[in-house]
Design a protein that fits this description.
single chain, alpha/beta, Aspartate Aminotransferase, domain 2, Aspartate Aminotransferase, domain 1, seven-stranded mixed β-sheet, binds D-serine
Length: 443
């Protein structure tokens, strides 16, 4: 990519971006919420659309000069409605958390009861966790997953009947299985709740038909646009036909909650790039891409299990895998994350269901295949990567997380230094770099 002007103007940022590009090129990006946006998406992001203010909506702006901003936003809206089979789309939310705050603002009053998938069980902060606005401003009820790792629908039904929530969330950030939209709709409809699907992680899979669509079952859909959808960092809120049937003013309530409720001027450069990503996602190659994401995740999951690692729910239906490290010790995620990073594999430590340790020292590692699949990697590469991941985690087996907080810091510091010097991990790092060279980014 040509960054001639940036190089002339700000050498420091230019160099930092070069270093980040090299990091992305030479390593395996396996954080399941990350991806590589196309050059076309980035060209739209880095365009003159960033120069404009356009509070309001197409045809109803507070400032002049929005003819072409309207054009871009209308394209994004129409493409979003088609992609998700929705009656209404708002493409202005700045990101996933603001989008979810806007849903609360649209349909709830402070103190209402809401219900979501518990964070340690793979849910999202904004679905009612105690430290986020959903848990702070509302009476939050959380449902969980069962011992087998699948959502506990019986518990969700019982809690919904007992608490009559205004909103029920379905969707999560660390759940490797398909979401039971139909079953959750039965529960929500029985108690008269709005059912909101937060499909941030799986929106690309839904568009490609690789994961069932929530559209027939839920009233509202929220999603970020930069995960499996492979667009810019942004978000959307969609209202379904079912949503409008429940509440004919729902679309208007959502629009008012986004602006002026929570946001000011939309990020028009992001809107344009979202339109581009939705156009790309409507192409047949994207369907093949999404199928390959899941095929890769399944191949990787099998390899990890064949090598003796335990996975939450025993596998995956999606792009995401959650390794349960309690077979080594509770809280071991920090050592595994460090070893993987040293080996050139970027993943994140994550809680597992019924987390025996804590969110900061969790017992799992979360992995995903969307970014590697964008590079063109397939099942054969996943098998090799599965072997590297297992070998890297094996290198950490002797470490133990002390109970005492001060001792903990000292042990982690020493372990990190030790891991960075580890010869086996350095050898994997070399091999990872060689593999990455065969799958260049932004050719
Ligand atoms: N931070 C995102 C993730 O990694 O899943 C969720 O918001």
């Amino acid at each position: 990519m040509n960054r001639k002007k940036l190089k002339e103007t700000d050498r420091e940022i230019y160099t930092t971006i070069r270093k980040e590009l090299k990091r992305q090129e030479e390593g395996l990006e396996m954080i399941p919420s990350e991806n590589f946006a196309s050059k076309a998406v980035m060209e739209a992001m880095g365009s003159v659309m960033t120069n404009k203010y356009s509070e309001g909506y197409p045809g109803k702006r507070y400032y002049a000069g929005n003819e072409f901003i309207d054009e871009a936003e209308n394209l994004a809206i129409e493409r979003a409605k088609k992609a998700f089979n929705a009656a209404h789309a708002n493409v202005q939310p700045y990101s996933g958390s603001p989008a979810n705050a806007e849903v609360y603002l649209a349909v709830c009053k402070q103190g209402d009861t809401i219900m979501g998938h518990a964070l340690p069980d793979g849910g999202h902060l904004t679905h009612g966790w105690k430290t986020s606005f959903g848990g702070i401003f509302f009476k939050s009820i959380q449902y969980h997953v069962k011992a087998d790792g699948y959502i506990d629908l019986e518990e969700a039904r019982r809690l919904a009947r007992e608490n009559k929530p205004k909103i029920i969330w379905v969707g999560a950030s660390a759940y490797p299985r398909q979401f039971p939209f139909r079953e959750m709709a039965e529960i929500a409809d029985e108690v008269g709740a709005y059912l909101v699907a937060d499909v941030a992680h799986i929106s690309g899979l839904i568009i490609a038909g690789v994961h069932p669509s929530p559209s027939p079952y839920v009233h509202i859909i929220t999603t970020t646009t930069h995960k499996t959808l492979r667009g810019p960092r942004g978000a959307m809120i969609l209202v379904t036909e079912k949503g409008l049937k429940k509440d004919p003013e729902l679309a208007d309530k959502i629009d008012k909650a986004v602006f002026p409720g929570l946001q000011g001027g939309p990020h028009d450069h992001t809107t344009a790039a979202i339109a581009v990503a939705l156009h790309e996602a409507a192409q047949p190659e994207f369907t093949e891409y999404a199928k390959q994401i899941v095929a890769n995740a399944k191949a990787l999951a099998s390899e990890l299990m064949n090598n003796g690692l335990k996975l939450v729910s025993g596998g995956t239906d999606t792009h995401l895998i959650l390794i349960d490290l309690t077979t080594i010790e509770p809280g071991h995620g920090i050592f595994a994350q460090e070893a993987l990073e040293t080996a050139g594999i970027t993943a994140n430590k994550n809680t597992i269901p019924q987390e025996p340790s804590s969110p900061f020292y969790p017992s799992g590692v979360r992995l995903g295949t969307p970014a590697l699949t964008t590079r063109g990697m397939k099942e054969e590469e996943m098998k090799q990567i599965g072997k590297w991941i297992t070998a890297a985690i094996k290198e950490t087996e002797a470490y133990r997380l002390p109970e005492d907080k001060e001792q903990r810091q000292e042990t982690i510091k020493k372990a990190k230094a030790d891991i960075r010097r580890n010869k086996a991990l350095k050898q994997i790092r070399k091999e990872v770099r060689e593999l990455c060279k065969k799958f260049p980014l932004y050719k």
